[in-house]
Amino acid sequence: MSGNQPFRRIAIAGDGLPAALAAAYLAKACGPAGTEVVVISARETGQTGDVVARPDMLRFNAELGIDPVTLCKQGIASPLFAVEVQGGAGPVLLPFAPAGIANNGVDFHHYWLRATQNGLANQLADYSLPLAFHEAKRGLAFESAASFKMPFGLRLDRAAYAQSLVNAAMGFGVLGTGGALDGILASDSAEWPLRITIADSEIGADFVVDVTSDGAAATALGRRQSGWTNRCLWIAGDCNIPGIELFRLQRAVSRFASLVPTHESVAADSAEFNRIYFAEEQRITDMACLIEGDEAAMRARPALARKIDVFSACGRIPSEDYEVFQPCEWLAALMAQGYLPKRPERLAERLPEAELHTWLGNLRTQVVELQKQIEAAA
User: Fold this and answer.
1) N vs C: which end of the chain shows fewer Cβ within 10 Å?
2) Using CA atoms, how far apart are residues 296 and 247, in angstroms rounded to an integer?
3) 146 neighbors 89 (Cβ within 8 angstroms)
């Protein structure tokens, strides 16, 4: 067998939406090279309710031929401009787009901070179009949401979206085994490196992608941590921040496919995957820790502690490698925990006081009027 030969078969261990998403994308990306993708149930009960797709999932869905306009018209999806996360001191709203607009390269919150130090009573959220749309009694149609040219995600019916992914996967040639995972072993056989037991039968595979909630396939292969090890990729999905489940899946399978896995794959491929995968995990854990609000836990995380200290000093939000969340989300979470800068960006002082208050007043009026129009729409 040539070392540069593409994998002949990738097995997806899992059920429901995670398995359908991973199978659809890998079949589309790797199928043209001759790789077969099969799904093996892990006997997990499918979750119900809604699932959140962050803004970058719109492009991912388009790659799979899933049209968000159609999903919205079918009642499967609706535009989403912010997510609510339950924190240690109550709910925290994380908007997908910033409040206000930047001025001369200076982020809006610096101007707002300057105005509040001079007596302005309005909250930063009062200038946030995403939060106004989020809190409106009536939502926006997809076309209307897109017309505002700002990032937004989707709230999706989980079961219906999963079925859309299943349909896409079948269109790309994904196969089902008709049975559930009973065991998996690494093999010295020249034919198949992995042997997977399904009921009374057995199939071979070159690689397994585990999207189960407990890492059933990965654990059977002796793995104790998610990530890519040898011929197994275990993608962890649990997180209390809406949208992160799909983010993890989408990023992991697309990055895995981009490395063009073959029998020649070397340790450097998996090492690079894991470097990025775990960097993103650190950013997710930082945000979850910040929202929870445990001061000692936050101080024990260097990147998060740096964000808090720099923001508290001058309102800037340091960026780490492979950030998951937008600055506007970090800003909302920091302020929800009571952190406020001691001073705004120096360049924000250049705008004359009268001009500043007129500008802020106009922005607030625009947000209020747009919110009224949405709520009054038939």
Assistant:
1) C
2) 28
3) no
